[in-house]
């Protein structure tokens, strides 16, 4: 009786048993873009509060003033730049973190491993997203400037063109340092803490993964991220809103601290939290639903 020959496995196709498949790279950007439509007015309020030289209004009063003066349309100034940021910065920070977590980290990674992976992904994403961030900050804060000093960008593409033409291509990377620092802090405090809080909540007897648990974990992650990122976020907004680059970052910080005090670093914290917490919740819940859809299409889960 002939014995069938044993064919060795192909080395070019390693076994995927026990390995989790990575989700499509674009899911994070798509989820962030969906959330942006709901939260952009809050982002605009935060930016205008951070770039205002003096402000005695609460977040609610400031937002009401925007609506009263410029209407609903005014609350969406810079929306195209916000969507561009979502499709560049957010796509890469979520996508890179997912790849690292899936390919290189163990099934139950430590908090330190998750922090390292999310921080690295955030740093690279921060570099990629600087041009969109510069245009967004300028478009969102334009109405707070005297008419003669306004930029008047029609949309994000016009803004990128005007900055490059009038100030040179390097102006698109004004504030790259604070933006990368903020991106590292944001990703590590938001994504790693979300995974951590989700794991903690799932360890409670009787809890199941779903929108309610995801809401709770993302709410906590959004609060942590707002607090950790506040100082870098304020500095980034001040630097990017300025024109010409005549003042260095240390000079801008020292001048602000001298005239406004140390609370300068937490200017607009409430506005940032009111914006970032819903943004975090919506983005992560949207992301979880997109992942569920991918799992269903793959046949890993059923409706």
UniProtKB/TrEMBL annotation:
Q: Which PROSITE patterns match?
A: SOLCAR
Q: Where would you find this protein in the cell?
A: Mitochondrion membrane
The protein's superkingdom reads: Eukaryota
Cited InterPro entries: MCP (IPR002067), MCP_dom_sf (IPR023395), MCP_transmembrane (IPR018108), Mito_Metabolite_Transporter (IPR050391)
Chief place where the protein resides: mitochondrion
Q: Which Pfam families match?
A: Mito_carr (PF00153)
Q: Which GO terms describe its cellular component?
A: mitochondrial membrane
A Gene Ontology biological process noted in the UniProt record is: transmembrane transport
Instruction: Check the record and name the SUPFAM superfamilies matching this protein.
Output: Mitochondrial carrier (SSF103506)
Q: Where are the Solcar repeats?
A: 19-103, 109-200, 209-293
Q: Which UniProt keywords apply?
A: Membrane, Mitochondrion, Repeat, Transmembrane, Transmembrane helix, Transport
Give the bilayer topology. Multi-pass membrane protein
The record's family statement is:
Belongs to the mitochondrial carrier (TC 2.A.29) family.
This protein is called: Mitochondrial carrier
**What organism does the UniProt record list as the source?**
Naganishia liquefaciens
């Amino acid at each position: 009786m002939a014995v069938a020959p044993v064919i060795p496995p192909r080395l070019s196709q390693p076994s995927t048993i026990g390995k989790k498949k990575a989700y499509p790279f674009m899911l994070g950007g798509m989820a962030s873009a969906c959330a942006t439509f709901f939260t952009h007015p809050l982002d605009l309020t935060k930016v205008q509060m951070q770039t205002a030289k003096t402000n005695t209004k609460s977040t609610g009063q400031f937002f009401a003033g925007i609506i009263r003066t410029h209407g609903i349309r005014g609350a969406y100034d810079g929306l195209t730049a916000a969507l561009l940021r979502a499709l560049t910065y957010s796509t890469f920070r979520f996508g890179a973190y997912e790849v690292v977590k899936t390919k290189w980290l163990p099934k139950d990674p430590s908090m330190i491993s998750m922090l390292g992976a999310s921080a690295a992904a955030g740093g690279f994403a921060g570099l990629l997203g600087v041009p969109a961030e510069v245009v967004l900050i300028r478009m969102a804060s334009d109405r707070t400037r005297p008419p003669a000093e306004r930029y008047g960008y029609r949309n994000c593409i016009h803004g990128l063109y005007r900055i490059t033409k009038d100030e040179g291509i390097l102006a698109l990377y004004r504030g790259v340092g604070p933006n990368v620092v903020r991106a590292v802090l944001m990703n590590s405090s938001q994504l790693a803490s979300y995974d951590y809080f989700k794991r903690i909540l799932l360890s409670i007897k009787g809890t199941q993964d779903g929108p309610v648990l995801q809401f709770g974990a993302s709410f906590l992650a959004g609060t942590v991220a707002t607090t950790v990122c506040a100082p870098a976020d304020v500095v980034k907004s001040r630097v990017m809103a300025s024109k010409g680059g005549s003042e260095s970052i240390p000079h801008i910080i020292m001048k602000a601290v001298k005239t406004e005090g140390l609370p300068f670093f937490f200017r607009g914290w409430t506005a940032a939290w009111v914006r970032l917490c819903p943004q975090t919740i919506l983005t992560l819940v949207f992301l979880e639903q997109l992942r569920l859809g991918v799992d269903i299409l793959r046949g890993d889960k059923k409706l």
